[in-house]
Structures are given as structure tokens and as C-alpha cells.
Fold:
Amino acid sequence: MVHFRDPSALARSQGKHRPDKLYRHHFENAATLSLYVNKINHISHKEVPDLKLQDGNAFQSVGTLKPTKDITKERIHRHYKTQQKRRPSAYVSAMPSMKDAEEKMRNMHKTRITAPRRMFLAEIDVSDMVAGILKTKMATTSGEHTTDDRKPLTLSTTDSWVEIPIWIQDAVPYEGSPAIRPPRSVESILNSGGQIWLSVNELTKSDLRVWAMQSHENEWLALSNIPETSILNVLPFDGAVLHTGKGYELVRNRRTDGGDIYLWNFDTNMWVHDPDLTDPSPYRDSRIGEKRKADGDVDVDSNSDDQRTPTPDSD
Structure:
């Protein structure tokens, strides 16, 4: 059960560590489904044959959600084993700082051999998150091995009660004070359309004793999905600049595939391949006195370095 009246939960709700916004950086070939990536580019997985982005989701994990099995140390660690393909993760990552998320995109673009394609940043509203403590019984299985045998000689299972710090976004906000709010099960929260978030920093200090690399510090994990209703804005990253809004110039992806042209459509919040620019209004603002140009007359290379949209200094 999730308890809201626990003193530690009440203290966390009033503390400085609860963000009002989170930021999800994403790219076309990411191992997470997204509303802002064309469906033909969504990945498939043999273990999830009916994998499909569900209506209402802006982001969705590949792994099928099983609350009693996914809110565990092993499944959280699995999320960060990006080279592992079996038993796909049921989590979606986000960060509390736009500046940090932008820097991570920039580093990925520069350093990865298989560079991410067509990147963007989603701004997520979590201002109504409420802290809770999940109190549950967890089974731990251990075994004894000989030095040359992979199979354990004996297995033993130990049950113990653990407390896991979690955060709740209710589909219908609770009107009363958290100090008098009754406990709820994880299943009832999810079945009513609620959202569950985990703070990696809190998990490392919790009974789960999650281990996290320095690069994953401060991250937040959404359980299974991030709803479209939580998205405040979607910003394109062209490989060098994070564009904070539509301007007079086209936003073009700087990493090309065989010379292909991809432009950011501000109406659909999506990178579009070789778009029809008869009407350029979804891609840029009209200049003063400009008339609609003939098909093919728009210069897709006009987004030069000296015309970049300024990058915000902070979030």
C-alpha cells in the first residue's frame, strides 16, 4: 500500500527536492515509444508482440507493466542496462533540469558512434506530484555455489518489509490534506489513470539500495508511461541548438542521412522528412511583407549558424 500520512512522505512533499517540471530528451531510434516520432519508426520487440503506443501516451516503455514485479531493485537496474535486449524496461527516464537534459543531448550527439537521430526535448508538468511511501513485502532469493559450478547447491528465500519512496500524480487530484489521506494500492492508483514517479536519488538511500552511476544521478523514472496531458512543450534540438520556439528560419536537423532533409514541424511537434513547403507556416513564422512562395522556392538551408535560435541559459 502507498501511505501519504507517513512523516517522511509529508516532509518530502514540503521539501525542496520536488520539481515542478521534468524534461525528457528523446530521439527517433530510442528504445521508448513516443507520440512525437512517426509510428513507422517505432521499435518492435519479440517479447512484446502486440507493442503499440496507447492512446493518450506521449511516451511509453517497451516493457509491459507488472507493478508487483517492476518496482524492484532488479528491474530498476535493468532499465540502465541499455545494451541488454531481453526483458525490456518498464520505465521512462526524465531529468529535473532543462540545462542538464540539453547537455546530455549534446554529448550524445557528439560522442556516440551510432549517433541519435532527430532529437527533441519534452517539458513535463509534475507540479501536482504528491509524495508517498510504498510499504510492501519483498522476497530475496540467495544461493550457495561451489567454485566451479554455476548452479547453486542450495536456495533460500527471505521475506522482508521494505519502504520505497514514490511520487503520485492523481488523474483526479485529492482535495483533502495529505495528512489525512487514506492509503491506496499501486494498482488502484494506476487503474484510475494516476501516474507513479520514482526519484533515483531517493532510491539510492532507500531500503532498495539502488546503485546508480553518476550520469544517472538526479534522474526521475516514470512507471510505464508519461501521458500527453502532462506535456507542456516539445522543443527540437538540431544537433547544435535547442530551439525554444518557432522563428523566421526553418529548423533543420544538422545530422543528415545521405543528404536527406528533415525539418521540424511546430504544429505536429515532429521531425518531417522532405516536407512539402508550399505552405511553410508549420515550419517557420512568415516574414513581414512575405507572400506565399511557389512550391520548392523555400531555402531549407537558411538556418545558418548566425541565425540560430538562442539557447536558454537555464531552465
